[in-house]
C-alpha cells in the first residue's frame, strides 16, 4: 500500500489558520495542514467541504480572510496564480485550462513562451515538451491539437504545463473525475513517479478507493474544517466515509428484487455516427421495462455517449428506431422526448444539464418552464394589461435613452463627424459636401435605434419579471398546457420543495447554479429530472465527480424511481455502479452490444472480459443476445 512508503522529508508547504468567507457561506474555517517533500497528500471531503477553495487560496486565485500560507518556512502572499507558479506551485483544475484549437506545445508554453526574435520558437517549444514528456513518462505528442486528444491525454498536458513552469508542488483538483479506469491507472503511475522525483502532490478527491490506493497521508475536510487525518494503512472505506459525511454511510446499495412490467423503451437496429462521422453505434437493439434498471457497461468511448444522445434527441440516428411507450420518436427533438415522460441526467452536467448563469430555481424548471403551473397564458382580461405595460415601459425607457443619445450626438459627435470631412461651417457647406456627414448620421442613427430598442426590450422584460414576481397571482388564469408569462412564485415554491427533498446545499433558490459545488449541481440536475416522476429515466454517469454521500443519495433515488414503476436506463463507466444498481446488463464494445445478461448471473471478471472485447460465447458460453 502507498502509505507504507510515506515520506519523512522536509515540510514544503504549511497552512495555518486559513479562514475564508463568501456571501452566506463559510468556506474555510481555521484550516491547518502540512505537506512534505515527495509526499502524495489526499485532501478528502464531500463536495462543498472547502477543499478546492483552500487550494485556490494556496494557488493565488482567492485571498484568505485570515491565516497564513508558508512556503518552505517563509510566509507567502500570492496576488495571482502567476506569482504562485513562479514560486513553484502548479495546479491542474478539474475543468482543464487548455485552448482546444492550439497544439500541445503551444498550450504548454503559453504565457512563458520561448521566442526567436518577436515570434514563438516552435521548434524549441516542441523540444521542451518532448523532453519533459520523456523525462516524466508522460506520453504526449507535442504537435497534437488539444481538441483531438482524449481526456486522459489532455490531463497529462496540464501536468506537463505545470512541470514546464518548474512546479515542485502540484495540486490536482478531482483529477480522476472524467477519466476511464485505464486512464486513472496511468495517472497514478505518473503521480508515483513524480513523488519519487521529489515533487509534492496534493490530491483533491472524494473517491475512497483511490485515496487508499495512491495516498501517503489523508486529510479529511467537512463543512470547511479539517475533521481528521489518517494513513491508508489504518483506514477503511467505511471509516473514511463516516469521517467525510459525519455519519455512517451505506457503501452498498440496498434494494429489493425488481418487478418488471410492460416495455417502455424499445431500441431496434439503432446506428449513429460520432462528431468525426465515424460509426459510433452499430445496429444496437435492446428494451427496458417499467420497474427495472438496465445497465449499459463498457469502457468510456465505446458508443455509450452517442447512444444516449440519440435516445434523448441530441443526435440523429443513421438507421434504426427508438420507440418510447409505443410512439416512434426516432430523430425527434429533445422537447418531444421530454414530453413523452422521459427524464435525462446527462453525463456532462455543465454542457447539457444546466445553465451556469441561471438561478437554482430557473435550472429546476429548464425542461418544464413552458408548462402550467410555471408558465401561464394571459387571458382576454390580462393580455391587454401585459401589452400595455410592455409598450408603456418600452417607450418610456426608449425615450430616455434616445434623449441621452440625441444630446450626446448634437453636443459632440456631430461636430466630430463634420470635422472628419473637413467641414467647419454647415451653413456655408455645399449639398455635395454634406452628403458624407449625412450618410454617416443616417447609418449611426439606424444602428442606435436597434441598439436602444434592444436595451429597452431587455429592461422592459426585466421590469415585467419583477412586477410579475411581486404580483403574479392576477396573471394566473387559463387552463391551457402552455403559457407566455412565467409565474416566478410557482417556480420558487417548486424549487424550495426540491431543494429540501434532494438536499441541494445552496444559500437560497435565487443563487446562480454555477456557484454551487459539483455535487450540488449534480443533485440539482437529478432533482429536476427525478422530480418530474418520469416513465423512462435515462441516467448517464449520474454520479460522476461527486462525493460518497451524494452517491449514496442518488443511488437510493434511482432505486426509488425503479420501485415507483419507472424504466431506468443506467449508463456508467463505473463498473461497481453498474453491478450495484442494475437488474439486467448490456455490454457495449466498439459501438455494438456484445452481451445481455442478468446482473445476478455474471461476475465482475466476466463483465471486465466482455468490456475488453471478448465474445459472449467465450466468456459466458452463450451467443450474444
Account of the protein in words:
This protein has 625 residues and is of the alpha/beta class. It folds into four domains: 1-88 and 168-249, P-loop containing nucleotide triphosphate hydrolases (Rossmann fold, 3-Layer(aba) Sandwich); 99-166, no CATH class; 263-354 and 517-624, 3-Layer(aba) Sandwich (Rossmann fold), CATH 3.40.50; 376-486, no CATH class. Helix content is 39%, strand content 22%. The protein has a six-stranded mixed beta sheet with strand order 6-9-10-3-11-12, sandwiched between helices. α13 packs antiparallel against α14 (431-470) and α16 runs parallel beside α17 (548-563).
Write the layout of secondary structure elements.
Blueprint: E1 11-22, E2 25-36, E3 40-45, H1 51-58, E4 66-71, E5 74-75, H2 81-86, E6 89-92, H3 104-109, E7 115-116, E8 119-120, H4 122-135, H5 151-164, E9 169-173, H6 181-196, E10 200-205, H7 208-214, E11 217-222, E12 225-230, H8 237-245, E13 263-273, E14 279-289, E15 292-297, H9 304-311, E16 319-324, E17 327-328, H10 334-339, E18 342-345, H11 349-353, H12 360-363, E19 375-376, H13 383-420, H14 431-470, E20 485-486, H15 488-501, H16 518-530, E21 536-540, H17 548-563, E22 567-571, H18 575-581, E23 584-589, E24 592-598, H19 604-611, H20 616-620
Parallel strand pairs: 3-10, 3-11, 6-9, 9-10, 15-22, 15-23, 18-21, 21-22
Antiparallel strand pairs: 1-2, 1-4, 4-5, 7-8, 11-12, 13-14, 13-16, 16-17, 19-20, 23-24
Helix pairs in contact: 13-14, 16-17
